[in-house]
């Protein structure tokens, strides 16, 4: 994944309120940190639950 593609994805997540972005420097090198917001954590939890349900129903049909 290129830096520009990653940047667009992060911007989309930030605009949706799922992540908080913190930009800064370590020495002279730029660094970008991400953290999940409450809304982002809730969405991730629901997504993982849906994936587990799909995996469970697929597994039980074999």
Descriptive report:
Helix content is 58%, strand content 26%. Strand 1 and strand 2 (29-36) form a beta hairpin. The chain is built from two helices and two strands. It has a two-stranded antiparallel ribbon with strand order 1-2. The termini are far apart. The radius of gyration is 17 Å and the shape is elongated. The chain has one domain (10-60): Arc Repressor Mutant, subunit A. It has 62 residues and is of the alpha+beta class.
Query: How many distinct folded domains?
Result: 1
Which sheet architecture does the biggest sheet show?
Answer: 2 strands, antiparallel
The end-to-end span amounts to 35 Å
Total helices: the number is: 2
CATH top-level class: Mainly Alpha
> How big is the Rg?
17 Å
Alpha-beta content class: alpha+beta
Number of strands: 2
- Work out the helicity level: 55-70%
- Helix-strand string: HEEH
**Uncertain regions spanning at least 5 consecutive residues:** none
Strands side by side in the biggest sheet: 1-2
On the 0 to 100 scale, the average pLDDT is 93
Large-scale geometry: elongated
Kindly identify the CATH topology: Arc Repressor Mutant, subunit A
* Percent of sequence in beta strands: 25-35%
What is the second-level CATH architecture? Orthogonal Bundle
Write the CATH homologous superfamily.
Winged helix-like DNA-binding domain superfamily/Winged helix DNA-binding domain
InterPro entries: WH-like_DNA-bd_sf, WH_DNA-bd_dom, WH_DNA-bd_sf
Protein name: Transcriptional regulator, MarR/EmrR family protein
Pfam family, one: HTH_34
Organism: Phycicoccus elongatus Lp2
């Amino acid at each position: 994944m290129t830096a520009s593609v990653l940047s667009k994805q992060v911007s989309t997540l930030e605009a949706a309120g799922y992540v908080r972005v913190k930009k800064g420097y370590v020495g002279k090198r730029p660094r970008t940190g991400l953290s999940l917001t409450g809304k982002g954590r809730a969405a991730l939890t629901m997504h993982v639950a849906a994936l587990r349900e799909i995996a469970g129903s697929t597994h039980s049909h074999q």
